[in-house]
C-alpha cells in the first residue's frame, strides 16, 4: 500500500500512521508532510524504523525551503516519480 502524508507530523496522528505501516508498503511525504523527513528529527527516526521505502516530493520540500535539511535516508522524488509510485501501489491511503 502507498501511504501519503500531507500534513505536518505535529498536526496528525503519526502514531496511527506508524501502526498501519507494514512490509510491502511505501510512504510519500508531500505538502506540509515533508517536515517529517527533516534530518535528526524524532519523526524521521520513527519513520525510518518502519523499514519501508520513504519518499519526499522534491517540489514541496523546495517550496518550504527545507530540501537541504531532508534526511539522506529519504528519497527526493519528482511528480513523475510520484505518479509511477501510484501505479506501482494500486492501494493508497492518504493521511
From TrEMBL:
It comes from the Bacteria. Belongs to the DsrH/TusB family. Heterohexamer, formed by a dimer of trimers. The hexameric TusBCD complex contains 2 copies each of TusB, TusC and TusD. The TusBCD complex interacts with TusE. GO terms for cellular component: sulfurtransferase complex. Part of a sulfur-relay system required for 2-thiolation of 5-methylaminomethyl-2-thiouridine (mnm(5)s(2)U) at tRNA wobble positions. Pfam families: DsrH (PF04077). GO terms for molecular function: transferase activity. InterPro entries: DsrEFH-like, Sulphur_relay_TusB, Sulphur_relay_TusB/DsrH. This is Protein TusB. It is found in: Cytoplasm. HAMAP family: Thiourid_synth_B. GO terms for biological process: tRNA wobble position uridine thiolation. The keyword Ubl conjugation does not apply.
Amino acid at each position: 500500500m502507498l501511504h501519503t502524508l500531507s500534513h505536518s507530523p505535529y498536526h496528525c496522528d503519526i502514531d496511527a500512521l506508524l501502526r498501519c505501516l507494514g512490509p510491502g508498503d511505501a510512504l510519500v511525504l508531500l505538502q506540509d508532510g515533508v517536515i517529517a523527513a527533516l534530518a535528526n528529527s524524532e519523526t524521521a527516526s520513527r519513520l525510518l524504523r518502519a523499514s519501508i521505502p520513504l519518499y519526499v516530493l522534491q517540489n514541496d520540500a523546495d517550496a518550504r525551503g527545507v530540501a537541504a535539511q531532508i534526511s539522506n535516508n529519504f528519497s527526493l522524488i519528482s511528480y513523475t516519480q510520484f505518479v509511477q509510485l501510484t501505479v506501482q501501489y494500486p492501494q493508497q491511503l492518504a493521511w
